[in-house]
């Protein structure tokens, strides 16, 4: 086991949680305590005997504490290989005492940035001596234990450490300094220098949970969270009930939350997602009415789907959602009645997200490919002024339907076609290899929904249709005409725009161009 007794410990922490109790335990086992600044004061205030680092080094802390542990008396005691005769001779010659344990956590750089501190204060919260001690101790883990996480203090209760423990602690320590340096590099690149794509992309994430499996049972999977405060999304949601979320649950719930967040300042809205594509979206005066309209768009796909809402859940809406098998429900909050209704559905996961994320927030979208990463800015594009390109102007209601359909289409896998009417999707065509097939599939699903509901006609009659990219030919547009659409919203920009516009005019459609596309692969 290669157990090493702790005879001298160096304690220097910003987060003082548990440090006094740890120091007292070590002192009771005869460990000499060496410390710095605020940590030394906290230990003395608790009645513990502490030796200042300045006494160890022979130099006072100086330059506002910038220089205190960067000294051979410290790093020699950390880096010396105890069974190397030359190292032992050097320690003897220079009076360097061995340090068996280092307990360090670093200046709160990320918290300082998060609270909006000025640049000078941010710079002062870049720790230098701490990471240096961490790395020295971790490199020499054959002889020295390094603890960077208060959760590991319990390992030191016996006053000794094993090699397996020191190896584990060293791995955590190097991960901690890597993440710390990553946070600093991110701040310099993105906040201080205003770079979008720095020469080196610094990323740091911490393991939140190992999942049962990935997209398929033969794949391993885990959830990682970004280091530092401020992240908000499905990964930060509080799960009130139900079994653990799977990889696919997270992926689908994220798609649902991202879409419903587009309506966070709008009327009550419900999104139903299946396999990362919306199968029904609706806004109404109440969540219940919105759910019923979204569900009616595709009652088959909604089975086993993910539901996200933009308002706290009420009992009536929860009762309707619980009427069919639903995998996950995500909501900002839920009242007592809604929680009680879902509690009877042990397999349903209820996620409370709090405030919905800003759909227009900045950030990077990252996708792995063989041999590298593709990185792009998030699609935070918003609709600006619409260009009417047809002879007929859209009515006020058609413009409302166009905007609704366009918002949904942004979150449908390309090629995407979305029919919408009266604040609800009428038919959604997703992920086809050509736009014509997406238009046909969406129209067919609308007819199927009408038959199941016993409606006199499909909701595509009199609807607006959105296309996430331009119509390369008029055939996709003509399929929408056959489905009964009266208004079209699309980016424009095809070499055949004139042909498409002419077809729209001949059919009496109103069509607007956005000048922006929303591919989603």
Question: Which helices and strands occur, and which strands form pairs?
Answer:
Layout: E1 4-5, E2 8-13, H1 19-28, E3 32-35, H2 37-45, E4 51-52, H3 53-57, H4 72-79, H5 85-94, E5 101-105, H6 109-114, H7 119-124, H8 129-139, E6 145-147, E7 160-161, H9 163-192, E8 205-210, E9 222-226, E10 238-241, H10 247-261, E11 269-274, E12 277-283, H11 287-297, E13 305-309, H12 315-321, E14 326-331, H13 336-343, E15 349-352, E16 364-369, E17 372-377, E18 387-388, H14 396-409, E19 417-421, E20 424-429, H15 435-453, E21 464-467, H16 474-483, E22 487-490, H17 497-507, E23 510-513
Parallel strand pairs: 2-3, 2-5, 3-4, 5-6, 13-14, 14-15, 21-22, 22-23
Antiparallel strand pairs: 1-7, 8-9, 10-15, 11-12, 11-13, 16-17, 18-23, 19-20, 19-21
Helix pairs in contact: 4-8, 8-9, 11-12, 12-13, 15-16, 16-17
């Amino acid at each position: 086991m290669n157990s090493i007794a702790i005879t001298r410990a160096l304690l220097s922490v910003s987060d003082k949680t548990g440090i006094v109790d740890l120091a007292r335990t070590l002192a009771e086992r005869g460990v000499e305590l060496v410390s710095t600044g605020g940590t030394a004061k906290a230990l003395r205030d608790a009645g513990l005997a502490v030796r200042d680092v300045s006494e160890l080094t022979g130099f006072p802390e100086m330059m506002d504490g910038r220089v205190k542990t960067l000294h051979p008396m410290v790093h020699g005691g950390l880096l010396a290989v105890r069974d190397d005769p030359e190292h032992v001779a050097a320690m003897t010659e220079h009076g360097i005492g061995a340090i068996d344990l280092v307990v360090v956590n670093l200046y709160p750089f990320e918290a300082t940035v998060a609270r909006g501190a000025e640049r000078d204060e941010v710079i002062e919260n870049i720790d230098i001596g701490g990471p240096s001690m961490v790395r020295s101790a971790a490199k020499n883990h054959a002889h020295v234990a390094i603890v960077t996480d208060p959760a590991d203090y319990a390992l030191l209760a016996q006053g000794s450490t094993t090699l397996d423990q020191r190896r584990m602690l060293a791995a955590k320590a190097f991960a901690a300094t890597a993440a710390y340096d990553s946070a600093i590099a991110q701040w310099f690149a993105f906040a201080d220098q205003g770079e979008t794509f720095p020469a080196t992309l610094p990323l740091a994430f911490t393991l939140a949970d190992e999942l049962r499996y990935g997209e398929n049972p033969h794949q391993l999977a885990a959830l990682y969270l970004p280091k530092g405060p401020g992240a908000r999304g499905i990964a930060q949601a509080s799960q009130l009930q139900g079994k653990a979320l799977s990889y696919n649950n997270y992926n689908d719930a994220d798609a649902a939350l991202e879409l419903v967040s587009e309506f966070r300042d709008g009327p009550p809205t419900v999104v139903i997602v299946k396999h990362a594509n919306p199968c029904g979206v609706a806004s109404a005066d109440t969540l219940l009415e919105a759910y019923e309209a979204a569900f009616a768009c595709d009652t088959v796909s909604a089975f086993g789907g993910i539901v996200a809402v933009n308002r706290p859940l009420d009992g009536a809406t929860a009762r309707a959602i619980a009427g069919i098998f639903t995998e996950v429900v995500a909501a900002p909050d839920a009242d007592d009645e809604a929680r009680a209704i879902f509690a009877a559905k042990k397999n349903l996961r209820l996620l409370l997200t709090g405030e919905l994320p800003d759909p227009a927030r900045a950030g990077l979208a990252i996708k792995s490919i063989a041999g590298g990463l593709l990185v792009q800015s998030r699609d935070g594009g918003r609709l600006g002024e619409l260009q009417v390109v047809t002879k007929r102007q859209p009515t006020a209601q058609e413009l409302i339907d166009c905007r609704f359909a366009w918002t949904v289409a942004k979150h449908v896998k390309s090629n995407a076609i979305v029919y919408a009417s009266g604040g609800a999707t009428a038919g959604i065509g997703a992920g086809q290899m050509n736009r014509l097939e997406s238009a046909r599939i969406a129209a067919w699903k609308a007819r199927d929904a009408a038959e199941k509901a016993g409606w006199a006609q499909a909701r595509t009659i009199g609807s607006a249709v959105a296309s996430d990219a331009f119509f390369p030919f008029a055939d996709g547009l003509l399929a929408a005409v056959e489905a009964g659409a009266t208004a079209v919203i699309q980016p424009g920009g095809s070499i055949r725009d004139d042909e498409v516009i002419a077809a729209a005019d001949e059919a009496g459609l109103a069509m607007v161009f956005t000048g922006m596309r929303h591919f989603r692969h």
